[in-house]
Amino acid sequence: MMNENRSDDFFQSFKEGFSEFQKKVGGFMDEVFSGEGTELKVRTDVYLTRDQYVIELEIPGVKKEDVSIQIHDGILNVKGTKYPVEGAEKYVYEKQERLYGSFLKSFTLPVSAVIEEVKAKYEMGLLYIRFPRNTGEEAEDDTNINIE
Predict the structure, then answer these.
(1) Which pLDDT tens digit goes with each residue over 72-88?
(2) How far is 105 from 99, CA to CA, in rounded Å?
(3) Which residues pair with 40 in a beta bridge?
(4) pLDDT tens, 2-38?
(5) 126 by DSSP, 3-state: which?
(6) Residue 62: CB atoms within 10 Å
(7) Distance between CA atoms of 6 and 43, rounded to whole angstroms?
(8) In terms of Cα–Cα distance, which of 71, 51, 78, 79 is closest to 139?
């Protein structure tokens, strides 16, 4: 009889501990997958062609007007926000993998970049930022870039 009480106590304690563990892990997973309070991860390729530097950012579902590109102190900053589809708050999701929120990507520009001639184009979820190599002239330090 004494062993039965011990095993009941053990299982009750285990059950309560496991329940608490489930709550903590569940809350953590909800936070991770909800995207709330997190910064979006933006996949990026940076490469050099014969005459220009190219930065490609993968930002599907982000509207062009929700993105800004600025250069300050030799740093190129790309900021934006991905919003949920209008009316999405009415749905009860069984599974939601897409994340929403803001992002910021910063790039230190090479000295040979001609920032006055930066071109940005948004096409099919990809933002292309291209700028030629410098011919030796001094570059401006503060620039806002328009996206085509």
Answers:
(1) 999 999 999 999 878 77
(2) 17
(3) none
(4) 555 666 666 566 656 555 655 555 554 444 444 444 5
(5) strand
(6) 21
(7) 55
(8) 71
Look up tokens 């489930």; give the residue.
22
Return left, alpha or beta for 143; rule: phi > 0 is left, psi -120 to 50 is alpha, else beta: beta
| Concatenated DSSP letters of 67-114 | EEEEEETTEEEEEEEEPPPTTGGG---S------EEEEEEEEPPTTB-
Structure tokens at 17: 């501990």
Q: pLDDT per residue over 49-74, tens digit each? A: 888 999 999 999 999 999 999 999 99
User: Which amino acid, one-letter code, is at 62?
Assistant: V
Cβ-based neighbours of 8, under 8 Å, separated by 6 or more: none
Whole-prediction pTM: 0.65
Residue burial 69-107, b: 16+ Cβ < 10 Å; e: rest? bebeeeebebebebeeeeeeeeeeeeeeeebbbebebeb
Q: Please provide the size of the chain in residues.
A: 148
* Nearest by Cα to 100 from 66, 128, 69: 66
